[in-house]
Each structure stands twice: as C-alpha cells, then as structure tokens.
C-alpha cells in the first residue's frame, strides 16, 4: 500500500433523480423526508435537507418513462484540487466539459464514469442562508423541521455498474478516493466496492449490475442522527404506504444501521447511520469479504434480501 | 478566508494522564470503561478502547502528588506531512526533539504548545491484532466488550491554557488544524477555541485557564456509539459512585450530547457524541459565540455548571 | 401493610386545561404535540393523542385571566367499581353530582378533591374510530402522526395542594389508589406523594403548594415511546421558542426520564418516560425519600430547578 | 363482551428451564444476561434479573437429554385471589396439589395446563434485599449490573400447545386472564393467542405446536429498558457466538420490538420491548389477525422466520 495523500474531493455534493411519478416522488421527499424546495426549473425541483450547508441536495426530475439517476456532483476541496481532478479526468478520456453550475453551484466540469453515469465536479458553492427556517443554534444550516423522517444530509450513492473493477479504478486513480471495503467473488471479480473521501467510511459505491445495462442506480442514502431515527422512519413509511424493502438491520459491511425503501417513482432510498464510525487511519487497509463470508448475511444474521439483486433503476 | 488545504494531522492519537490514585483510576478505565491493558512499564499502564486501530489510547501514570495530563500524541497522515509539521514546530521554536515512540508508536517528535503542554507527533504505527478479543465482524479492531461504558474511541482533548489566543494560533499556523467554533468575550479575548482535523468537528480544544498556571487539563473525551450509550453510562457511573459533574445534556457549541464525570484521580472525563455531525464544508466559516449568547446556557437551556470554571487538573 | 385488593380506577382519562393564550396553546398541542382536534364547543377544543383509545385526551379552554387546570376525569374499570367509588366520594362529603359526560364520555360523577380540584369519574366511553387517520397496524388507535413531538398518551397529572396529607388520604381511602413513592420533610410533612392504579408507577400526584392557594396545577405529563423521543422533543421545543424549564434528565423518584416545558399559556407540561418500569408487586411498599436524600438532586445529580417550587398555574 | 372484572393474577413469577448443556446455559444467563445466582440446589441454579423484586426469576436445571420448560409460577394478588384460582383449577380437574415454594416463594399450588405444562400459583413471597449489589437509587431492587445484556425482568412465556383453543379457555376461564390479540387461521382455528394480566399487553401466550407433542416451549422473553438495549444485545450475542434467530425488528402483533436468540441449551429466548405500550382500556376488545393479514409479515415487512414454525424445545 502506498502512503496516503490527502483527498481532493471533499464530499458527495448532490444527486439528480428521475421519476416517472413526479408528484408522488415530490411528496415523498418534501413531505415524508421533510426536505425543502429551494428552486423549480423546467421539469425539475431542487430540494435540500435541513443540515445541508449548500443550497440543494437532490434535483428531482420528471421523466415519463423511467426512474433512475441523473448527474451526481462532487465538491473539490479547493480550486487547485478541482484543476488536478479535471486534468486527471481528461487524461482518462472521460471528460465532457465545463458547464454553469445549477442552483448555487459554481462552474462544474461534467464527465462520465466508465459505466456511463453522468458526474460533475465543482468547487465554488453558495452557502444556504436560512430565512423563515432560521435555526435556534447558529451552528446549524437551518431549523430542524420536526416532521416526518427529518432527512439530515445526503450520505452516499451506490451505483450499479457492468464493470465494477473499471469503475473502482476510476474512483481511486482518477478521482483520488480510497477504498474502504469490498466483496470479492470466488471467480475473482468484485461484487461491490465502497469508496470514501476523508473520515467517512463510504461516499461513492459500485455494485455489480447483473443486467450489464449501464448507467443504473442501486440506491442513494440519507444520514439521520441516530438509530432510533431509523426505527421511527420505518413507522412513518409503514403509515404512509411506502414499500419497505429491507431493515432496519445492521450491515456487516461498514456496520451501518440501515433501512431501505422504494420512493414512489421506484428509486431505492436508504437511511443509513454509521454512528460513531470514522475511518481515522489514513492508511486503513481495504477490508475484503469473500463470497463465503457474505453467506452469513447481514451483521445480525438476516439474509440479504433477494430484490437487492433484482431491482435497480431504471428497471430493465 | 483563504482556501482550504488538506490536513497534515490525521487525528488525535493518544494521551497520557497522571493520577494520584493509580489503582482507582485503573479500575475506572479498565473496569468501568472496559478498556484493555496492553502494556505496563514503570509507573504506567497503557490501555486501549475496543475500536482503537492502534495499540493504545491512554497511558495512565501514577503521580503521587497531582492529577493532570502528560504527553498528547497526534498522528500525521504520511511521512511528508510529518516532516512538514516538524519543520513548522522547529521554526516556531517549540520543538524538543525526536524520541522512540511508545508501545507500537513509531519515532515521535516531541514538542510543547505555548502553554507548556507536552505533545508528540508521529506517523509510523502498529495496527492492533486481536487475539482473545477477536471481533465477529472483521472490519472492527477488536471485540465489543459488552461491559460498563464500552468506551469506543478517544474523541478529543480540551486543555486549559493561560493564553488561548497564542495556543490557538499554534494550532492553525503550526499544526495546520482548522477552527470550527469559538467563544469571544466582550473584552475581545477568547474563552475557548475548538480545532479540528478533517470532518470531525473538534479534536483539540483550548479553554481559558482562570488560574494562568500553565500545562493543565480541562478534560479528555471518549466517543460512544449513541446518545443512549451516554444515558446508560450515567446509570453506570451512578451505581459505581463516580462523581457525575454535568449532563447528560446537549452542548450549544458543536451540538455534542455530553456527560462529564471525574475519574477517581480527579481528571475530568467526557463522553461525547456528535452523532451524524460532520463538517463537510472544506471552507466552513468559524462559528463565533458572544458572551451574551453563551448566557443562554447549553442547547436545551441548562446553565453551564460552575465547576467547569473552577476545576482543572492539576488542581491549583 | 394490608393486603392489596384490586383497583376500581382503570386510568387517568382526560384533563381540562385553561389558557389565557388560546391560539398559541392550541398551536402547541395541535401542531407541536401532533394532537388531533376532535371537537369544539364554546370556548373549548377537545384534542386527542394518536394512541388514545377514547375520543379525547385534553380539553383546552380559553380563560382570559389565568392558566390552570379544570376537571380531571378518571375511568372506572366497570359499572360496579363506578358505583363503589361514587358511594365512597359521597360518604366523604366531596361529591358534586352526576353530569352528562363530554365528547364520547358517558355519565360522569363530578366531585372535588380536598384542595378544590374538580374531578370526574365515569365508566362508559366511546372508542375512537379512525377515519382519515387509520393506522397501518390494526392494534393501534390511529395513525402515528410523524410530526412534532408525536405525543402518544396522557401519562399523569401532578396537582399542587395546600394539604398534601389530606389529598393523599383521599386518593387511597376514597379513590382506592395505591401510593408508590413520597417525600417526607424533616418536619414530618409530605412534600409530594405519587399515587397509581395498577402497574403504572404513578398517575395522580400531589405536590405541596407553597402558596396554599388551592386548586392549582404543577403539571400534566405525556408519555412518548422512548427516551430518544424526549431528546428529539427538546430539539423541537428549542426550534419553536418554547420555554424549556428542565431536562432532559432522569428523576430519582420513580426513575422517569423527563423534560419539562411551559406551553404558551403558562401551564407546565412534562414528557416522561418510565421505560420498562412497571410496579409488578401488588404489595409494593411505599418508597419514602427524606429531605436529606432529596438534596442529592435528580438521579444523575442535577439539582432540582428552582422554578419547580415557584411556578404553578394559575400564577398567584 | 362482558364487563371487565379485576385480575387475580398479578404477574408471571418465574420459570424453570431445562438444558442439556448446563454450563453453557449458565454462562449465557449469568454472564451474558448479567443475572445473579441466588441459590443452587441439586441439578438446579436459581438466577435473578437486576430489577426483580422477588428472589429469583429463572430456575435453570440440568437435564441430560433435552431442553424445554419446567414449572411456570404465577403470583396471585392476594390470599383471596389465590384461593379463588385454586378452587377454579380444582374445579377444572387440572390441579396437582400444594407444595412448599422454592427459594423465597411461599406455598405453591401446582397444576397443569391442558397441554401438560406444569404451572404453580402462589401469593406469599420474599422481597430481595440487596447486599453487595445495593442500588444507588433506593426504588430499585438491586444495582444495575452494567454488563452484557443487563436483562431487567422476565416479560412473558410463549408455550407451544397442541390445542391452542383449550389452553386459551383455560387462561381466561380458569386463571381469569384477558386476551389481547390472536391469530385465527382460515380454517377457524387459532394459530396463537396472547393473554395478559393488568396493563401489560401479554404475559402468557400459546402458539400452535405443529408436532402436537405436548408440554413444549416456544420461548421465554426478558424485557430490557429500551430498543437501543436490544440493538446492543444483538451486538453482544454476535460477539459471543450465540445464534441470533430473528430480529431486531418490530412485531405487528402487540407491536413489540424484538430479538430472538437460542441459548446454548437450545431454548429460544426473546428480548422484547413493548415501550410505552400499555393496555389501559379495561374492556379492550381482542384484536384478531387473519391468515391473510399475517402474510404481510412483521410490522416493517420482514417475513416471519421459518424456524419459528419448526423449532421448539424439547426438539422432537
């Protein structure tokens, strides 16, 4: 293992989701997750979680025929880091070009990962200034909404990819992320790989797309405060007729306490709490799980649900 | 604000505590906090928390006459970062010199902060290999002990300092940390300043030492998994006759859920849970609290306890 | 101690609160506590918690000049128990007479406790039938609201009384309740006494009224699901400008985890969680606390807040 | 529904468990559940949970060939209630006779339920007086152990029975319990029935024994303080190699948050938290679930685990 050098990417910034059921999806994010609409543009609305320091977290876009994921933007730590990463992306031949950023986001370099997922990288951003949602404690972006699931912040994205190896190399070699954990099948190939910036245990993840379709989403995840929040979220989804796919339970991988639901448009949404889990070690070795080890199921023994390997968006 | 550049210090490594009641203090850390003794040397024992990836977390040293803090070691992210910081410390005239590291820690450059607290910086370290404390999940340093307070990892240290300004400048200019929050008194001076590496909201903190004695400790803190752990810890300390000084409650500053106790030797120990709170913004502006604002007390209105401003170790 | 015989009173039914700030108080109960308005009549609205099996929980009544408590109704376990208790009340010379019950409550015998608090006892009641608030699980009265504090059910009432001894005897000898805990001052008098029906550790409580005014309220309490709910409630009250008087903390007496706030009308409202605490022993001896013991403060050492002994409603 | 009359049975008192792996079972209850050994007699040890007001909670008996359940004792609320129930049992022809009680328990009338499970009923009992386990709060039976799962109190027993109807009638007609919930199959027969005394939602439960063997156990359950305790318990069982059969999850029936494990002897042990759920309504109608409704699985959608319908003790 080479010695660690610092991260050029600060964090996952925001994600665009497509939905064929726009009104129901909007209800899910705005009313159940307590997100705030900060802008509307064309067929899209931009929503923010209460603890988001930037203007928006999710861009929700109506798409008549299919759910799925649009662009995922990540923030660079400074202008030099942005330049370094753009150069690396261009060198890898995956660049698309510069665009004006959306809703508070500065100039964004657009590119694609090897599976065809659209991504963007930016540094400049506008910090959210609360108006009628001023928090009582000034070290908080906006008031705690106190309703529904109270989604706090975006935590990670997990893409499906036809070639998890190629996408993983892109994460480490081109974007400069580190890998925390991975599943290696008996045939030597990876079933999934988890990548992170800084102390978080994962931010960007690839899972094997059994359809080999390309450009599909496994899920995005929000991070609440506590495990109790996730238990309460399960009650709220139950009361509101949202399909609970799996959990609450604890992942063996990265030990996240989780709940998976499908938003009305069909996209899988996770609520995930890594608790006090931070990867403090700058040289943390990658934890690799074998096929045999994964047969034990999740941390407390629950078998991984079948639909994890049959449902992704768009559905193909 | 200048643009952020990355952190050379990865995290707070370990801390030496002095105690005039060695046996009782050892009982506190080993039996109540469920820490494991990994080495004994002279008048000291080295103890580790269960989620510590390095060999040890706390060095507990018998000192007949007084409690207090010995050396605080921090880990650099790589050899180059170590060199950079040593050069900066030497340039600041605060260096002491290289020493062999203790118990799994590589060569350590020893220095002092402007208040006279001894510190060390190292890069090389040995990862803990569990023996009879093997965890069931391989992505964990050792087995969850399942007893007492189950202290998970060291979270931060809060020193008392005669000159909080000077110590703060040392943190940012010499060690390259960032400041997250601070209290500025009406007279323009700082009552306390919180510094952090990476996503954690604080790691190293200075509070005004009203005695102007020098080299004193306000507290060290351990991070448990959840707020419920802190509530349970309060019950355990109650049953074991440990002085609970304040809490459980929520800090306004950095919004940490906290509990403060005094270990038998007199050192103040905090159990602190920042929950899902991460400082994702690489350019996060410092949050400054005024004297007026601090009069509101803690987050939910509890007044800050008097002894916070009268008790430190050594007691003088 | 005489052998236990069963309880004629099943539980605390509902309470009328007076408020000089009707609109703000209504906002507090309906919007922050997520209670549902089920009826309006004259200057009163009737509100229910989501897990209330009867029609209503709180009757909120506008009263221009003062906050305070109106009638407290308790439910008898069956018609014979109702008759027995009415006979005992009449024998004690404290009866007022029969009235038609309010909003789903059957014939109610109205009476006064020795301090002048109005009370009622009834057996017949109407069970709530959910309409647009149907729960997903049929063993639940109505849907979990998933907003604000989600007040689950009324837990207890704590009255101020000029003569705690006389009121206490009324509870045991006339209403047939049992006493779980009490505070006896050095002068031999009681500072407070806790009474309960069945397994709950308290339902009806008297605290000494230092003003000797008569017919005043110390507080009413709601029971949420978990301690985490109470921590979250504190955040919600903080964000909404509600005065948090004390807590979250754990009572030494009955070990309840608590939070006290003042609703906008001035009445003290507690959120209290006794957790798994049930008084299973049918002959449970009364736990008596001395003045000396109470100096230790609450369970984890927080001193009892001064305003507990200076604020009651109506304010006199 | 006839009007409610009060309960003659106060609560489930204690249970005898058989184990073919005595030492390992003892380790499970004493070391993992933090129960205290209070007596040893022949092939049995008597253990108590920390919040048990009587002397013991579980009698663990070595039995070379098979796990399973011995006598289950329940406590009557007073001597008259005891007499009434003994008369009813004798009238039902299920009485065995009076015996001296065990370890702090007074004279016990022994009988059998229609499935052949041995039961006992007693009124006199000895309250536990803590010695080296004195609690800091005097309203608690003994000190909070602060280790392992910290089992607080016995919550309920769930027997397998060849004829759930007959056993259920015995509960209501002979023991005078009430039924809270039940599952009725499409063929009109009951798959399971839950019975309770007083405010608890269940204490004694019968589930259909698919083997029709007679005198078998589905599980016994302990009640911890909080849901977080159950999540922590799962971690502790994981670390200690205990088979986690199902959970943590939330039951649809009675809405209990649960975790099921198998103790080393093979008996299924549940940790169950009904939270703030109390059956306040003295006339609470029985909630009946259909086969169709049960197909939805547990509250949040997890399918009921297969082994619930294939594993009982003794294994036959």
TrEMBL record, chains A, B, C, D:
What keywords were assigned to this record? Answer: Dioxygenase, Oxidoreductase
Mind telling me which InterPro entries this protein's record contains?
Glyas_Bleomycin-R_OHBP_Dase, Glyas_Fos-R_dOase_dom, GlyoxalaseI/FosfomycinResist, VOC_core
Q: Does the keyword Oxidoreductase apply?
A: yes
Gene3D superfamilies per record:
2,3-Dihydroxybiphenyl 1,2-Dioxygenase, domain 1
Can the keyword Manganese be found in this entry's annotation?
Answer: no
Domain of life of the native organism: Bacteria
What terms describe the molecular function in GO for this protein? dioxygenase activity
Query: PROSITE patterns under this entry?
Result: VOC (PS51819)
User: TM spans, by residue?
Assistant: none
| Entries under PANTHER family matching the protein | GLYOXALASE FAMILY PROTEIN
The protein here is known as Catechol 2,3-dioxygenase
Question: What species is this protein from?
Answer: Microbacterium sediminis
């Amino acid at each position: 293992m080479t010695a660690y050098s610092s991260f050029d990417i600060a964090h996952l910034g925001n994600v665009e989701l497509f939905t064929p059921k726009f009104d129901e999806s909007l209800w899910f994010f705005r009313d159940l997750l307590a997100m705030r609409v900060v802008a509307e543009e064309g067929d899209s609305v931009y929503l923010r979680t209460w603890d988001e320091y930037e203007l928006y977290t999710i861009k929700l876009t109506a798409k008549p025929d299919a759910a799925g994921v649009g662009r995922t933007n990540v923030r660079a730590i400074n202008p030099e880091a942005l330049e370094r990463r753009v150069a690396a992306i261009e060198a890898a031949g995956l660049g698309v070009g510069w665009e004006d950023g959306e809703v508070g986001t500065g100039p964004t370099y657009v590119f694609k990962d090897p599976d065809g997922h659209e991504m963007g990288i930016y540094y400049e951003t506008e910090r959210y200034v609360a108006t009628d949602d001023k928090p009582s404690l000034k070290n908080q972006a906006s008031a705690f909404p106190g309703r529904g699931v109270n989604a706090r912040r975006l935590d990670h994205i997990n893409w499906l990819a036809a070639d998890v190896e190629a996408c993983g190399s892109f994460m480490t070699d081109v974007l400069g992320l580190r890998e925390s954990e991975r599943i290696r099948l008996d045939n030597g190939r990876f079933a999934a790989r988890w990548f992170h910036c800084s102390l978080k245990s994962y931010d960007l993840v690839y899972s094997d797309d059994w359809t080999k379709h390309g450009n599909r989403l496994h899920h995005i995840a929000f991070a609440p405060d506590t495990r109790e929040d996730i238990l309460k979220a399960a009650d709220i989804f139950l009361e509101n007729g949202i399909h609970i796919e799996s959990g609450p339970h604890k992942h063996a991988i990265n030990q996240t306490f989780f709940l998976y639901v499908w938003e009305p448009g069909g996209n899988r949404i996770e609520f995930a709490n890594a608790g006090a889990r931070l990867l403090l070690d700058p040289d943390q070795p990658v934890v690799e799980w074998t096929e045999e080890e994964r047969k034990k199921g999740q941390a407390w023994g629950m078998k991984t649900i079948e639909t994890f390997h049959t449902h992704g968006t768009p559905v193909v």
